[in-house]
Amino acid sequence: MLTVRDLNDLRASIAGWRAEGARIALVPTMGALHAGHMALIEAARRPGTRVVASIFVNPKQFGPNEDLSRYPRREAADARMLNEAGCDLLWLPSVETMYPAGFATTISVAGVSDHFDGAARPGHFDGVATVVTKLFHQVAPDAAYFGEKDYQQLAVIRRFVADLNVPVEIVGVPTQREDDGLALSSRNIYLDETERARAVALPRALGVATRAIGRGEPVDSVLDDARRALEAAGFVIDYVALADAETLEPDPAPGRPRRLLAAARMGQTRLIDNVPVE
């Protein structure tokens, strides 16, 4: 696996692969990698494809009171994981490369970013859309792979790619989970032993709720039950909501695809999860 920190070197490597007829796949990450990220690498690996993974802890998607300074950084361990997973190139841009002096452009995506994490974390999705746009211009991939755990992020990226005619196929990869159902996340390492045991209430509450909604039970009552279950486990809730799976509008119209989404804090750790509703 190549490890590249200079933009000119990145473009030269990709140009060489293009000359050989290779397809380019991108897996953007913020590092602190786990099995969920490896599932993205595995999904991206296809015959004739070169896989590029990026690691960049993006300051523009963290709010002033969020965990930018303590977000886990473990470059050497991440590089070993990517190499073992069959990644072809690790792109490690600096903050100065991504946001040089005078940088003044922000990508903002209305609609899908208005609710849920968009409301709870103002400016977060502007930071996501901006950095992903930059990565697309730097790597020029044919396809990019994102986990469905960050479902609203995936919806935001799909929206701006469609709106701006960006020639990149966006591939969503199902959420990877621990044996007890907790969604894999780089932030899970913040949970102490007691918090980790209680955190499983999040996927369990969503599972109970999605089955109840699927049976036709009243949505408001089901969501209230889910909130009570989470609070009983020790969570402080940001939101538990049913949304249109494509537009992320709350209270989806009959017949539309639906997604149940939740964000809640266990101690100092904010966890998110989502499940489809049939």
From TrEMBL:
Amino-acid positions noted as binding beta-alanine in the UniProt annotation, renumbered to this chain: 61
Listed GO CC annotations: cytosol
Binding site for ATP: 30-37, 147-150, 184-187
Keyword Nucleotide-binding attached: yes
Main location: cytoplasm
Gene Ontology biological-process entries: pantothenate biosynthetic process
InterPro entries: Pantoate_ligase, Pantoate_ligase_C, Rossmann-like_a/b/a_fold
GO molecular function terms noted in the UniProt entry: ATP binding; pantoate-beta-alanine ligase activity
Reaction it catalyzes: (R)-pantoate + beta-alanine + ATP = (R)-pantothenate + AMP + diphosphate + H(+)
Domain of life: Bacteria
Extra remark beyond the main annotation: The reaction proceeds by a bi uni uni bi ping pong mechanism.
PANTHER family associated with the record: CYTIDYLATE KINASE/PANTOATE-BETA-ALANINE LIGASE (PTHR21299), PANTOATE--BETA-ALANINE LIGASE (PTHR21299:SF1)
Protein name per UniProt: Pantothenate synthetase
